[in-house]
Amino acid sequence: MRFDSPRTILHGAGSRHQLTEILPAKRVLIVTDAWLVQAGVVAPIVESLGAEVCVFDGVQADPTDANVEAGLAALTGFEADGIVAFGGGSSIDCAKAIRFQSGALPLVAVPTTAGTGSEATPVMVITDTAAGVKRMTRDARLMPDVAIVDYELSMSMPKALTAHVGVDTLTHGIEAYVSRKRHALTTGLAHSCIERCVRSLRRAWVDGGDREAREAMALAALEGGLAFGNSSVALVHGMSRPLGALFHIPHGLSNAVLLPEVTRFSYGGAEELYGEIAAVFGVDRSKAAFIEWLEDLNRDLEVPRLRDCCGNDFERFRASISKMAVDALASGSPGNNPVVPTAAEIEEIYLAAW
Question: How many whole angstroms separate alpha carbon 11 and alpha carbon 180?
Answer without folding.
Answer: 30
